[in-house]
Write a structure and sequence with these properties.
Strand order of the largest sheet of chain B: 9-8-10-11-13-12-21
Shape of chain A: globular
Strand content of chain A: 15-25%
Number of helices of chain A: 12
Structural class of chain A: alpha/beta
Oligomer: heterodimer
CATH superfamily of chain A: Thiamin diphosphate (ThDP)-binding fold, Pyr/PP domains
Largest interface: A-B, 63 and 73 residues
CATH superfamily of the largest domain in chain B: Thiamin diphosphate (ThDP)-binding fold, Pyr/PP domains
CATH topology of chain A: Rossmann fold
Largest sheet of chain A: 8 strands, mixed
Distance between the termini of chain B: 28 Å
Shape of chain B: globular
Radius of gyration of chain B: 27 Å
CATH architecture of chain A: 3-Layer(aba) Sandwich
CATH topology of the largest domain in chain B: Rossmann fold
Strand content of chain B: 15-25%
Chain lengths: 350, 601
């Protein structure tokens, strides 16, 4: 069951420039376990969309199957949502995007939905650079079937039952960078301050934006020895960058040492200002970030923040030379060539 | 009996040697002479170097099905020569490349051998190595033209059509053709006892393959998003869509595409994309064959239960598993009718000609949107990949696409309350909304999990049953929208009936004709869709014996008829062909005899 939130709201709730307040971006009440990391991510999505001034109905929420894929019910009630089949959210989103390129596509998925059953579609949606934001709520286990290890569980991580995972864990960020994602970030569900601007920047990016969010499973994978527990992630979180998202038409207020700040203008005119916290990587150099990820893994660190950005990104519809008019809005006149043309074809076939 | 315009020619080639266009030239020339012709490619699952055949049946009576027995074999493939010689009918002809002498043991006393030194002629007359190879094919067409009385002016006209913009290729092709004509003139008596005489029997028919027709139908039907994964024999359908769309769907002002085609990573993604696009209000389809439908099954169940329109074409080939990928069959009916786990049922359209491929493909989008469910067009390799003589295409310019029950922003403003899965009209078809329509109304959560009338998650048993029963009602409504069977008699003439569908029709119609010529009456209907209408049940009820003719081992359509209509299995007789070749009238008549067919007049 999804519980409906009370409609009552304080009349003085602050509104964004479109006249919506934060509640307009909320969903039904979550039925996930109390303390689930996913609920924090849902809240971050609500904040990001509110602050981004997106009209809620211009967003399509896409998901597959699993605990994470249930969350679209818990944010953006005024948006259409599509809870598809396990591991296949990318293909459904691809079709939806081709049908109407003017909307904002937000996909959420889990580590099982992405790194196991959905690995094929995940890989291919990235190499096509579909214009969408893809958030993985990564807890290293299958929550909905009671805690089996997933493919992102780190080697050596200990399960609730005390078993040590003997298989290599898949690093989704490294994979995304390798396979053509044009925006890659990593974060932690417990760090909303970091996560909200990342989601905003991801949604403003034209192309495939990937955010891997470590999101602990309080019920099945929050034990001692787990590398996806709240305690472990807090202790091993190594923030690589801080990102400020500056919406269209807003003054830049944050001040950094210019040598350490990269400013990038996004497709819609907004700006991201990236504050590097280390000097041995460059967010626009794949090799440097892959190296940084490997080094961090050797030190048992989890790198978070904005990792990679391709500012030359060309998204799928542009690659296909598709008309800027959403295909689902083309008129019958534009679609059907008519009988005269057909009779000409008949003549050629005689 | 006259052998004019009544014979079978088979070509034995090596694939990848350019024989296909020469063989097409041969069939098309006969078609242009006004004589009904049907052509079948019998090809290997291979690109180069293996034996491939092309079989042309010429029929004054207009029989377009395959016929056993080769009257004239044109063999330019030493690999298959022995069995090619064996396949010629007694009294028939064997035309071969006599550049190399035929083995003594290959000779048969009861057939005629016509040696034409194809390679010698080409080596002598042409210098370019590619031309030496390609023109061997044209030389044998020239030889056939002389032997069978083909009109070389018509062939010249075909060259002119083929080489528009490359006119300098016409002269060497004509030269090769004349070389073949001249060789026969000088060395053999001609024409043969069977041959072509011009007629006016094809009317305004066109000559095209079903996949091209379906691709064009999708353009006319307003498809904008096409996702697909390559698989024989459906690949050429999407290629045709792309070719037509590039001609007919480029925005004249911007030069941009008014369509998107994505080659997916597999069939699961292909159907997923088509479903996502339809969910978002575009007309989208994918095309595949049996193995693809197996993979798409989970998604088909989602589209059925979440009520999302989607169009799928299944160009059937021989299964199971990889089966014989380049041979035809009608063996995906049970799979397609009930694809996916749980209680599901899908609308199937069953074309039998290129014209029907065009019409049904265009109509499929209307049916899918009207019914908010998957619609699967069931063609097969024979229809999809072979050129067929067909009624011409036609489009009613006053026609409007039927987009089904989709609520606009204004509709949402004006109605009091709305629920995605409410049966407002009592026909089982709910109203849907498209993403992005209205800022505060009409949004809902599409899901494959159980849901109530307002699309909210529900595990309530009564709600679940209500929704499932409504879906059943919706598929019942479907039977009033989709094409009814075609009857072959105004009123019943016999206690015996035949049921057939798709490409089995050609052989079945021929069988009916043969029986009727013998004074034996038999009634028949041709199915064009599933779920079955009342008319089908009525036809079965009105006959004591029904022969169900189909191209699979397990009598799948018969199983569907028995399962859906609860008719007595005993009266439903199987007539089955499943060797991968198109069914023949002879096989139908023979199997009917084996069933102790005793027609009652």
């Amino acid at each position: 069951m999804s519980y409906i939130r009370p409609k009552f709201q304080h009349p003085l709730l602050p509104k964004n420039t479109l006249g919506y307040n934060r509640k307009d971006y909320e969903g039904t009440i979550s039925t996930l376990c109390a303390g689930c990391g996913h609920d924090s991510i849902s809240a971050a999505i609500v904040d990001a969309c509110f602050e981004l001034n997106i009209e809620p109905h211009r967003v399509a929420k896409m998901s597959g199957i699993g605990c994470s894929s249930k969350t679209p019910a818990y944010f953006l009630s005024n948006s259409h949502g599509f809870n598809s089949v396990h591991g296949r959210m990318p293909s459904v989103t691809t079709g939806a995007n081709l049908a109407n390129r003017s909307m904002v596509y937000l996909g959420v998925s889990g580590d099982g939905d992405t790194a196991s059953i959905g690995m094929g579609q995940f890989v291919h949606v990235m190499r096509r650079n579909l214009n969408m934001t893809y958030i993985v709520m990564n807890n290293g286990c299958y929550g909905l079937t009671k805690g089996q290890d997933s493919a992102t569980a780190d080697k050596g991580s200990v399960s609730k039952a005390g078993q040590v995972n003997s298989f290599e864990g898949i690093d989704l960020c490294a994979l995304a960078i390798e396979l053509g994602a044009t925006f890659v970030a990593q974060s932690f569900s417990g760090d909303k301050q970091q996560l909200v601007p990342l989601i905003k920047a991801a949604m403003a990016h034209s192309g495939f934006s990937f955010i891997n969010v470590i999101s602990p499973c309080v019920t099945f994978n929050n034990n001692q020895g787990s590398t996806k527990s709240y305690d472990y992630v807090r202790e091993h979180n190594e923030t690589l960058s801080r990102l400020d998202f500056v919406p269209v038409g807003t003054e830049i207020t944050a001040k950094y040492d210019q040598n350490e700040v990269t400013e990038v203008e996004m497709h819609d005119g907004s700006l991201i200002s990236l504050h590097k916290l280390g000097n041995d990587w460059d967010p626009e150099n794949k090799l440097s970030i892959i190296t940084a990820l490997h080094k961090a893994r050797d030190k048992n660190e989890i790198l978070t923040g904005m990792l990679y950005l391709d500012r030359e990104s060309v998204e799928l519809n542009e690659l296909l030379n598709t008309t800027p008019v959403p295909l689902n809005q083309l008129t019958e006149q534009q679609l059907c060539p008519g009988n005269e043309v057909l009779q000409g074809m008949n003549a050629e076939l005689r | 009996m006259s052998r004019i315009n009544d014979f079978v020619v088979r070509f034995a080639n090596v694939n990848g040697t350019g024989s296909a266009s020469a063989n097409y030239l041969f069939s098309k020339a006969i078609f242009r002479m006004g004589v009904p012709v049907s052509a079948k490619n019998i090809f290997p699952s291979n690109i180069q170097g293996l034996p491939t055949w092309y079989e042309v049946r010429v029929s004054e009576k207009g029989y377009l099905g395959r016929r056993e027995g080769v009257d004239l074999m044109v063999c330019v493939n030493p690999q298959s020569m022995k069995r090619d010689i064996a396949s010629v009918k007694s009294g028939g002809y064997f035309l071969y490349d006599s550049t190399k002498k035929l083995h003594e043991e290959f000779y048969r006393e009861d057939i005629h051998f016509i040696g034409v030194p194809l390679m010698d002629i080409c080596n002598r007359e042409f210098t370019d190595p590619r031309q030496k190879q390609l023109f061997k094919n044209i030389v044998y067409v020239g030889a056939l033209a002389r032997l069978l009385n083909l009109d070389t002016e018509i062939i010249k006209g075909l060259f002119e059509d083929q080489f528009q913009g490359k006119e300098k290729l016409i002269a060497p092709n004509m030269k090769a053709l004349e070389l073949g004509v001249d060789f026969i003139t000088q060395h053999y008596s001609y024409p043969l006892d069977f041959r072509v005489e011009p007629r006016d029997l094809v009317g305004d028919a066109i000559f095209i393959d079903g996949n091209s027709a379906a691709g064009l139908g999708a353009v006319y039907g307003g498809a904008t998003v096409v996702s697909w994964y390559p698989i024989t024999p459906s690949t050429s359908l999407v290629s045709a869509f792309e070719e037509y769309a590039k001609k007919l769907r480029i925005d004249p002002v911007s030069g941009k595409n008014n369509f998107s085609i994505v080659q997916a990573e597999d069939e699961l993604a292909a159907i997923g994309m088509a479903i996502g696009a339809n969910w978002n209000g575009a007309r989208a389809f994918t095309a595949t064959s049996g193995p693809g439908v197996s993979l798409m099954s989970e998604f088909l169940g989602l589209a059925y239960y979440a009520e999302i329109p989607v169009v799928l074409v299944d160009v059937q080939r021989s299964g199971p598993s990889t089966g014989m990928p380049t041979r035809t069959q009608q063996s995906d009916y049970l799979l397609a009718a009930y694809a996916s786990h749980g209680d599901t049922k899908h609308v199937l359209l069953i074309p039998s000609t290129p014209k029907e491929c065009f019409d049904m493909m265009a109509d499929a989008f209307d049916y899918a949107e009207l019914l908010q469910t998957p619609v699967i067009m069931m063609t097969d390799l024979d229809l999809g990949m072979n050129d067929h003589m067909s009624e011409p295409f036609d489009w009613d310019d006053t026609r409007k696409y039927n987009r089904g029950k989709v609520l606009s922003a204004e509709d949402l403003e004006s109605i009091q309350s709305w629920g995605r899965y409410r049966d407002v009209d009592g026909d089982g078809i709910p109203y849907r909304t498209l993403p992005g329509t209205h800022p505060t109304k009409g949004s809902y959560f599409t899901r494959g999990s159980s849901h109530d009338e307002n699309a909210a998650y529900s595990e309530d048993s009564a709600t679940y049953v209500r929704i499932m029963d409504r879906l059943k009602k919706k598929l019942q409504t479907a039977t009033t929208k989709i094409p009814v069977p075609v009857a072959y008699q105004e009123s019943n003439t016999s206690a015996t009936g035949m049921i057939f569908f798709g490409t089995s029709r050609f052989a079945a119609e021929e069988a009916i004709d043969i029986l009727r010529l013998q004074g034996i009456a038999i009634d028949a209907i041709r199915l064009r869709s599933f779920p079955f209408q009342q008319e089908v049940l009525q036809f079965i009820d009105e006959h004591d014996t029904i022969y169900v003719i189909e191209q699979n081992r397990d009598a799948q359509m018969r199983a569907l008829l028995i399962n859906e209509l609860e008719v007595n299995p005993k009266k439903m007789k199987k007539v089955l062909n499943y060797d991968g070749f198109p069914i023949t009238a002879d096989l139908i008549l023979q199997q009917m005899q084996e069933h102790q067919f005793q027609p009652l007049n």
